[in-house]
């Protein structure tokens, strides 16, 4: 499995450029508590790679701390989707860097 570990700053820059889909694989209740603006919730418990956007934008996964996002990368690659990037420290790392979240 090929994986790129992205920092919060790298993900923020990519989001601001509008060139990515940030897929949050945390559960609904976690997403409702705090989320990154522009992210889309697709919980790992019900995740199917075939439901990922296929419009040419890069897919970057995220979760709370980087474990579930790795599972999502593995599932996407097994499905034949070219996705290898995740927010390595998850939303916890994002918050620790002082970056904004939405309630």
TrEMBL record:
SMART domains: RHOD. InterPro entries: Rhodanese-like_dom, Rhodanese-like_dom_sf. Residues 16-103 form the Rhodanese domain. The lineage of its organism: Bacteria, Pseudomonadati, Pseudomonadota, Alphaproteobacteria, Caulobacterales. It comes from the Bacteria. It comes from Asticcacaulis aquaticus. CDD domains: RHOD. This is Rhodanese-like domain-containing protein.
């Amino acid at each position: 499995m090929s994986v790129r570990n992205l920092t919060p700053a790298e993900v923020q820059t990519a989001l601001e450029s509008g060139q990515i889909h940030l897929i949050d694989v945390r559960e609904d209740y976690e997403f409702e508590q705090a989320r990154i603006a522009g992210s889309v919730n697709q919980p790992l418990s019900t995740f199917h790679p075939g439901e990922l956007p296929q419009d040419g934008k890069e897919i970057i996964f995220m979760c709370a701390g980087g474990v579930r996002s790795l599972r999502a990368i593995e599932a996407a690659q097994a499905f034949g989707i070219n996705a290898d990037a995740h927010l390595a420290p998850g939303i916890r790392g994002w918050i620790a860097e002082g970056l904004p979240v939405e309630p």
